[in-house]
């Protein structure tokens, strides 16, 4: 029996041979560009590279400077605020919208397209649009005062204490539809017999969603969580288009810090160190997900 398994392995290598050959460019691209340059970035984060990379190794000096830099610490704080708000509100709003869409309402395709449309826009367009909408002289505040509510004040982008919440509003407008579609796809994959059983038992619809459906959506939710979190870590263009890190440095984010260090301050070593910290953050998210998704599947 063991001999037949061993003899069968060479034949498995030639299964779907055309697909495997077609995947070679993608594999080489991933290895050379993503893995190779990531390792290159990590190595040069231990150097004193300025305008150009150079092998002047200085140990952990760049990381010590990084974590003593007020601008970097503010960017980390802002990323935490942005990330927590995005994860909580995008999942709550996205799940509620998915549940409403799951009721097979009329014109569902139209509503789904409208809600998903912002995700098709670039973050730069979204940032500029919401910069106008949150402008006190042009946007929401001006409109409300035009209706006679003279005391209405809504100017988050010029308030250093709440500016990140203005960025969160724009990000939610763009990204919630994407979360809704992913969760809706998971809801549509649930067997109708489960719904029939809960109706026979007299379980209210909202309890069915919370206590029966949500646990069954775990794989979809975990995948959505990974995608959204990876996007949160590398958020850049939305902030640049909407606030450019202001007022002052109150809306700085790590990706913008990396760009400023590498291209404005011509300090590649510091930029590489910040990039490495972002890489570690993404790895902390991706590796457990990959282990649970693929490792658990193999064991099963």
TrEMBL record:
Keywords: Cell membrane, Membrane, Transmembrane, Transmembrane helix, Transport. The chain crosses the membrane at residues 21-43, 79-101, 113-133, 162-187, 208-233, 272-292. GO terms for cellular component: plasma membrane. It comes from the Bacteria. InterPro entries: ABC_transporter_permease, MetI-like, MetI-like_sf. Residues 76-291 form the ABC transmembrane type-1 domain. PROSITE patterns: ABC_TM1 (PS50928). It is a multi-pass membrane protein. One of its GO terms (biological process) is transmembrane transport. It is found in: Cell membrane. Belongs to the binding-protein-dependent transport system permease family. This is Sugar ABC transporter permease.
